[in-house]
Amino acid sequence: MGTGGNTRPGSPAGGRFVGLDIGGTGMKGLLCAPDGTIVARDACPTEADLGFQAVMERILRLADSLVSGSEEPVVGIGMALAGNLRSREGVCVFSPNLPGWRNVNVARPILENIGIPFRMGNDANCAALAEHRFGAGRGTVNMLMLTLGTGVGGGIIIDGRLMLGPREGMGEVGHIIVDPVGSECGCGNHGCLEAMCGADGISSAARLVLQSGVASSMLEMADGDILAISPRIVADAAAEGDTAAIGVLTDIGKILGAGITTLCMVLDPDRVVIGGQIAKTGAPLFDPMRRTVAARARMVPFDAANIVPAELGGDAGALGAVALFDDDSMAQLQP
Ligand SMILES: [Zn+2]
Predict the structure, then answer these.
(1) Rounded to the nearest whole angstrom, what is the distance from the C-alpha of residue 99 to the centroid of ligand 1?
(2) Which string of b and e fits 174-187 if b means at least 16 CB within 10 Å?
(3) How far is the CA of 185 from the centre of ligand 1 (A)?
(4) What is the pLDDT along the chain (335 residues), one digit of tens a residue?
(5) How far apart (Å, rounded) are the C-alpha atoms in residues 231 and 237?
(6) How far is the CA of 115 from the centre of ligand 1 (A)?
(7) Å from CA of 181 to ligand 1 middle
(8) How many CB atoms lie within 10 A of CB 12?
(9) Ligand 1 centroid to residue 188 C-alpha, Å
(10) Can you tell me the distance from the alpha carbon of 290 to that of 225, in angstroms, rounded to the nearest whole number?
(11) pTM value?
(12) How far is ligand 1, taken at its centre, from the CA of residue 318, in Å?
């Protein structure tokens, strides 16, 4: 096992890279040029319930089909997955989406069966690196990314490098405290950004508004079932001008703005990139978020116009797995 190496994007060697994104329901593979241009893509269901061995066999088939279909030699395989990793050892410590992936060596089967240098990263970190190299964060020195989904994930780029920390725990931006007495978070703490702005937080904020008796199309869109309210419904209703839904996103945007202000004071980013489905809502979320940061980032003012939506969408994880080869600080495992 070595680190660094010359098989990276931008190196004269060129070649192709395979980026894999292993999710709980589906896995995706991209064959890419060093600049992130997608040459080919493939995907298949993960069937995570079948356990590590069965999922790994699918991963090997997916990777092998992209490698064997490439006209140029593939010089690196990268993998993004959710969870705690020890990427320097190629180990997944725990993945919330993949039952049985506890302290499993992910690198070994790939190195032994395909025989190409391997790098791996947490999916939120990979998304941040991808946006920095190929997307909304291009050209920045320090970049912060927040991904708004079921949880609130993130990644931190400092001096152009992805920050991991000694326990690979950096960038857990969803678990900064924005309300010391706020609602309970999945992590066990109270008042985390994720507890309030993750999918459950947004849905319960919308439910509270509906329970107060305010007229809103959200309830119709949920077929009258208040428990079926989701961030998607809030976003769709807001896009149609629903005042109650816009109000919910305004509140969420303000909380996000407070959290981003805190992070700006710590990290001094050039740009903050916001990803995830709800970020596609645009103005109803971004306007209150930007206004809050503009009003509250006082010690070191941050130009709120530099809070921007992500560009790479659902490809960010797999592209980030490719971008791991463009960061010398990322560990590379050799066959
Ligand atoms: Zn938390």
Answers:
(1) 21
(2) bbbbbeeebeebee
(3) 5
(4) 333 333 444 444 579 999 999 999 999 999 999 999 999 999 999 999 999 999 999 999 999 999 999 999 999 999 999 999 999 999 999 998 899 999 999 999 999 999 999 999 999 999 999 999 999 999 999 999 999 999 999 999 999 999 999 999 999 999 999 999 999 999 999 999 999 999 999 999 999 999 999 999 999 999 999 999 999 999 999 999 999 999 999 999 999 999 999 999 999 999 999 999 999 999 999 999 999 999 999 998 899 999 999 999 999 999 999 999 999 999 999 99
(5) 10
(6) 39
(7) 13
(8) 5
(9) 6
(10) 33
(11) 0.93
(12) 26
Ligand 1 center from residue 170 Cα (angstroms): 14
What ranges in 217-281 are assigned the alpha helix state H? 217-221, 231-239, 243-267
Q: Determine the distance separating the centroid of ligand 1 and the alpha carbon of 327, expressed in angstroms.
A: 29
What separation in Å is there between the alpha carbon of 73 and the centre of ligand 1? 43
Measured CA to CA, the distance from residue 287 to residue 292 in angstroms comes to 9
